[in-house]
Amino acid sequence: MSEEEFLVVAPIGRDAELIASRLGRVGICALPLPDIAHAVAHAHVGAAGLITTDEALPQPALEHLESFIRDQPAWSDFPIIVLTSGMSEHTYTGAGKHLRERLGNVTLLDRPLRVDSFVSAVETALRSRQRQYQARDSIAQRLELEESLRKAERMAIAGTMAASIAHEINNPLAAITNLLYLISHSKNPNDVRRYSDVAMAELLRVAEIVKQTLRFHRANVQPTEVDLEEIVDSTLQLFRARLMKQNISVRRELAVRFAHCSSAEVRQCLVNIIGNAIDAMPNGGVLTVRTNPFTNSMNRPFVRIVVADTGFGIPEDAKASIFDRFFSTKGTNGSGLGLWLARDIIGRNGGSIRFRSRIQKPSGTVFGIHLPCETASEKMKQAA
């Protein structure tokens, strides 16, 4: 198995084969190789570490190995054992410092080798490498879990959208059905014309709902200049039925229209936050969605998106945890993923998200989302 295998480079005589053979007798896999270039090629695939002699590290080979070490992933601290010979104590100390500065995890062993000391050093390096691979696997599992949770939350939002769209379309379709019935039984041309006009208006309403749905489906996932007015309006349209049913009035104040972000992800974030705001006002209230300019500490232009409600507020003991994964104040009615995902989304788009809330009258919660207004290239131009 390559991840449990040491690479051995010792270009003089049969040293590489002898080292590999000696390690094999104690159950450690080792692969003799002719030079550092071959070792680096194998290390890219996976290896427990490198065992090499000092004569195998002329400047070009050292630079090649240094490049590999510099480009290794964050979890990796590739072990290197260098077998030295003919060094004074001062030279030995200086060489070790120099190699560690360039290569990191370096162990120097002077030749002639004591077999037990050599085997012990290799076993220590192997255990270290195994722990690194465990850390890598743990990171991969965590990332896989987080991506699964993102997909689960996206599916939940898709379910919310499907229910809202079905409700929105059902009303005009029911009206059209009734109007067609009236048209088929009416003998008055003026009534027929009036019913037809109303039916056309209802069909246009259905077309608008479908258009808003397609905007969600086709939204760009790459950061671009996006129209916040369109995003806000289409998100509010999604909750139109719930807003009316719960007697919630909407205040929409958009002083800044454009931001540089992923429209699909920001829609998803707003769906989460506005949905939470509506949940907090079961008996009616005011939902405010506002945008205004904001300048960060680096004097860069941002837009602040404010979503405020007059709901029951967030309890004090819950405030420190609302962005935590699986934390929810809704009991079995909440997934505990919405705000965790919202913070993740805004962070990936170069922004930040904050909130304040109170449960005393007048109660309510305000979320502030900061998103950049300029592209990375514009930032670089200003910095230059």
Could you please describe the fold and organization of this structure?
By secondary structure, the chain is of the alpha/beta class. The chain folds into two domains: 2-113, Response regulator (Rossmann fold, 3-Layer(aba) Sandwich), CATH 3.40.50; 220-383, Heat Shock Protein 90. Helices cover 52% and strands 20% of the residues. The protein contains eleven helices and twelve strands. The protein has helices spanning 15-24, 36-45, 59-70, 89-103, 115-185, 189-218, 228-238, 240-245, 263-279, 338-348, 376-383; strands at 5-9, 29-33, 49-53, 80-84, 106-110, 224-227, 248-254, 258-261, 285-295, 301-309, 352-358, 364-372. The chain has a five-stranded parallel sheet with strand order 2-1-3-4-5, sandwiched between helices. It has a five-stranded mixed sheet with strand order 7-9-10-12-11. Helix 1 (15-24) links the parallel strand 1 (5-9) and strand 2 (29-33). The two termini are 50 Å apart. The mean pLDDT is 83.
Number of domains: 2
Q: Strands across the major sheet, in which order?
A: 2-1-3-4-5
> Class of the largest domain in CATH?
Alpha Beta
Q: Which residue ranges are poorly predicted, with pLDDT under 50 across at least 5 consecutive positions?
A: none
- CATH third-tier fold name of the largest domain: Heat Shock Protein 90
Radius of gyration, rounded? Answer: 32 Å
- Tell me roughly what share of residues is in helical segments: 40-55%
Which of globular, elongated, flat, extended, rod-shaped describes the shape? elongated
Q: Whole-number average pLDDT?
A: 83
The largest sheet is: 5 strands, parallel
- The termini sit apart by 50 Å
Kindly state the number of beta strands.
12
Structural class: alpha/beta
Instruction: Using the 3D structure, state the CATH architecture of the largest domain.
Output: 2-Layer Sandwich
Number of helices in the DSSP assignment: 11
